[in-house]
Amino acid sequence: PRRTAGVVTTAGPVAPRPVRQLARTPQLLVVSTVQGAMFLLIFRYVFGGAIDTGSVPYVDFLVPGFVVTSVLFAGTGAASGVAQDVEQGFFDRLRSLPVSRTALLAGRSAADTALATWGLAVTTAIGFLVGFRLHGSVAEGLAAFGLCVVFALAFTWLFICIGLAAGNAQAAQGMSLLVFPLTFVSSAYVPVDSMPGWMQPIAEHQPITAMTNAVRSLCVGDPGLIGLSGSTAHYVV
C-alpha cells in the first residue's frame, strides 16, 4: 500500500499557489488596498467628528478596530478562491493522490493567513499615515499585531468552510458577506454603549468585539481610557 504523505510535505507545495495567483493578478492586490484605504478615510474624516470616544482621539479608537475587521474583508477572497478550486476540480485531483485531506486545507489556510498578514501590515501603515499613534509601548503594539495574525488564522478556516460549502465562487462571495454585519454590531467602529440597549448585549458578546477590545487595550496602554473596566491581560486572554 502507498504511504500517505505527511502534513508538512503536503501543505508545503499547496501553500504558495494562492500567493502566486495573487502575484500574477496584481490588480486584485491594488483594488483591495485602495478599498481598505478608502473605507478607513471615510470613517476617519467623515464619521469621526460625530463619534465621541472620550479621552482617546477617534482615530486612535478606530484604527485598532479597523485593522481587526480588515481580516474579514480579506476572507472574502479566500472563500471564493476555495470555491473556485472545488468547482474546477483542483481538490479532486489532489485527493486522488496519497495525501492528507486536512493538509490540503492547512496549506490553503497558511497561504491565506500570509496574505492577510500582508493586508494587516498595509492597513496598519495607512492608519499611521492618517494620524493613529500608539499610547502603549512598542512591545504592546507588536503583541496587538500578533493577535490580529492569530485572529486571521482562525477566520481563514471559517472562510474555507464557506468556500467548500458554496459550490461556486459567486455563491461563496455572497455567503461571506453574511459575516459583515458582525463588524458593525461590535466595538470596532463605535463604543458599544452608544448603541440601543437591546443591541448592546449582542455587540458585547461576540468575537469581533472581544478581539477589538484586546487589540485596542494593547494599543492605548490603559483600557480605562476607552471605557473598559478590566485589565489589558483580561481582554488579551
Describe the structure in brief.
The chain is mainly α and 237 residues long. It contains twelve helices and no strands.
Written description of the protein model:
There is one protein chain. The N and C termini lie far apart (46 Å). This protein has twelve helices and no strands. By secondary structure, it is mainly α. It has helices at 7-14, 16-24, 26-47, 58-87, 90-95, 101-129, 138-166, 169-176, 181-184, 200-204, 207-220, 232-236. Helix 4 (58-87) runs antiparallel to helix 8 and helix 4 packs across helix 11. Helix content is 71%, strand content 0%. It is elongated and about 60 Å long.
Which secondary structure elements does this structure contain, and how are they paired or packed?
Elements (H helix, E strand, L loop, with lengths): L6 H8 L1 H9 L1 H22 L10 H30 L2 H6 L5 H29 L8 H29 L2 H8 L4 H4 L15 H5 L2 H14 L11 H5 L1
List keywords for this structure.
mainly alpha, elongated, 237 residues, 71% helix
Low-confidence stretches are none
SS strand fraction: under 5%
Query: How would a crystallographer describe the biggest sheet?
Result: none
Distance between the termini: 46 Å
Number of helices: 12
How would you sum up the global shape? elongated
How much is the radius of gyration in Å? Answer: 19 Å
Number of strands: 0
Would you tell me the overall average pLDDT?
Answer: 85
Helix content: over 70%
Q: N-to-C SSE series? A: HHHHHHHHHHHH
Structural class: mainly alpha
